Model the fold of this input.
Amino acid sequence: MLTITDLNVDLAGNQILRNINASFGAAQTIAIVGRNGAGKTTLLRSIMGLTGVKSGVIMLNDIDLTRRPAHIRAAYNIGYSPEDRVIFPTMTVEENLRLPCITQKQSRKEIDERLAVVLKVVPQIEPMLKRSGAALSGGQGKMVALGRALMVGTRMLLLDEPFQGLAPKLSMDYTQALSRLRVLQPELCIVITESNIKLLGNIPDQTWTIERGSIDAQAITMKEGV
Ligand SMILES: Nc1ncnc2c1ncn2[C@@H]1O[C@H](COP(=O)(O)OP(=O)(O)O)[C@@H](O)[C@H]1O
Ligand SMILES: [Mg+2]
Done:
């Protein structure tokens, strides 16, 4: 589905991603594990079109996304939950959730229907809907950021270190949300980055290792039975 070929990304004159080759298929849950500074966020931002690419190609099936802006990638139903959440504090939680779909010019009916599905996946959001985005704890913000990514992310979902700093109860809620998502949207490709592999438990069916901007093909591990 999404294929990255020989991707190189520089930031501030430093080579950050080096010759990344990777293929993300439908119905997969892929973990990308690497220590801080390895390039996980830069890789997700490159897929999302939030950072410039020096060379290489990012294809979604036969569509070349490499130089397309982020909103186009959202229109192709790629959702992104950044590491630092970025929930708008001057809007309610519900407005935060609806915003990416409004930006995509979806109809009121489409957005209502999608919101209902998202609330099934992440029911913890329901009681927070009318609250201000400023009134959320860090963990609640992560749940809302997941919901917001899901509003448009019906094909591919990019989650940047969702488990970092989550209390055990919220971690469990988050994991259960991902399990419900697997059932409700079996074709979705879920990509999760993490620096601590232990936080991922049994979620991924493939785990890739990223080190100094390279993905080591030898280090890819598959869950047993997949
Ligand atoms: N905007 C930026 N300008 C310059 N260097 C950056 C920028 N963002 C990240 N980096 C550098 O790129 C490397 C990879 O960062 P990042 O992708 O955030 O790694 P990770 O998410 O795995 O912690 C780090 O060495 C970091 O210092
Ligand atoms: Mg990061």
About this structure: The longest strand covers residues 14-24.
